[in-house]
Design a protein that fits this description.
Elements (H helix, E strand, L loop, with lengths): L1 E7 L6 H9 L7 E6 L6 H11 L5 E5 L5 H9 L6 E4 L10 H11 L5 E9 L5 E3 L8 H7 L7 E4 H6 L11 H11 L4 E12 L14 H14 L4 H20 L3 H16 L4 H16 L5 H8 L11
Parallel strand pairs: 1-2, 1-4, 2-3, 5-8
Antiparallel strand pairs: 4-7, 5-6, 5-7
Helix pairs in contact: 5-9, 7-8, 9-10, 9-11, 9-12, 10-11, 11-12
């Protein structure tokens, strides 16, 4: 009924725990696709040994030379024949009963196009934090909070192909951008209760733990989303707010030049809004609040920016 795709690049240190967590799952994927994305360490050997040790699993070992997780994901997606598909990162750990609970939800809600879930971020010091989610299908909230993340998206294969799959031009925030494209298609979204998995935050993770020196990777994602939402004033304002919040974080990390560049980008986006002065004022407020260490600036913007009106289902 569903396929699992895991791309990897130089993850020899992390893959054993990821694959072990897969073995612990109470419900098995129909097809597991492990995609080597140009590894130069022993990652490929780890995956080959895993496949040989478990011949009763339907495991495909693939190779995608084009760099980037999105290229690897799309290469595997072309081979998927199941109704549903799920993507996971090669340095994280699956919750044992995640697939079992998702399939129960799908059985109860056969009209669902996506099953979304909150995930748990774990940090090197042992602390853990649940990713902030609003449990809705709001484009505005996806822009502000990135609540649809890679490991929290169980999606119909046909829908993912319909919206264009993963954007191979993006190396950062590609799941944020994909979530927005999926929501723009007005899917029927069902949220899974609770929080899931162990999403590891470390300097070499896809998520990373800071924005410094990555603006050249973030700006293409911001630009892609700007093109997607250019006809909707509220979403443009939300995008400008998100950019100014990141600009504040860049400033706090000491990347002053990058912060100013993103701040100017947000200002230009505000000019495209139906009420540019009000959008700019909101951006200035959240930027200054976030620069002094204030948390939850997005919540202020969420209260002020009226959301689009369409239905969604809460469990």
């Amino acid at each position: 009924m569903f396929s699992l795709i895991i791309p990897y690049h130089n993850r020899e240190q992390w893959l054993p725990a990821t694959l072990q967590s897969l073995l612990s799952c109470t419900c098995r994927p129909q097809h597991v696709l492990l995609v080597d994305n140009g590894s130069t360490d022993g990652s490929d050997l780890v995956c080959r040994n895993f496949a040989q040790a478990h011949p009763d699993w339907n495991i495909s070992l693939l190779s995608e030379p084009r760099p980037g997780a999105c290229c690897a994901r799309n290469a595997a997606l072309k081979l998927v024949q199941t109704e549903w598909v799920y993507f996971f990162d090669s340095d994280d750990e699956l919750s044992p009963d995640f697939f079992e609970q998702v399939l129960k939800v799908v059985a109860i809600h056969p009209q669902a196009d996506m099953v979304a879930a909150a995930t748990v971020m774990t940090f090197p010091d042992g602390s853990m934090r649940c990713r902030a989610v609003q449990r809705n299908a709001s484009v505005r909230d996806q822009i502000l909070t990135a609540q649809f993340a890679t490991q929290g998206l169980f999606v119909r294969t046909g829908l993912l192909r319909q919206v264009g799959a993963w954007n191979t031009e993006l190396t950062k925030w590609n799941d944020w951008e994909l979530g927005i494209r999926l929501l723009l298609s007005r899917p029927h979204v069902v949220w899974l209760p609770g929080a899931w998995h162990r999403i590891k935050q470390h300097p070499d993770s896809l998520t990373g733990n800071g924005f410094s020196h990555t603006l050249h990777q973030l700006l293409p994602a911001f630009e892609a989303v700007r093109r997607h939402v250019s006809a909707h004033g509220v979403w443009l304002a939300a995008l400008a707010v998100r950019a100014d919040i990141v600009a504040a974080q860049l400033q706090r990390e000491g990347s002053t030049v990058e912060a100013k560049q993103l701040h100017r980008w947000a200002k230009n986006v505000c000019r495209q809004c139906p009420h540019p002065a009000l959008a700019r004022l909101l951006c200035i407020i959240v930027n200054r609040y976030a620069r002094v260490g204030g948390r939850g600036a997005w919540m202020l913007a969420r209260c002020i920016l009226q959301d689009e009106k369409h239905g969604y289902l809460l469990l």
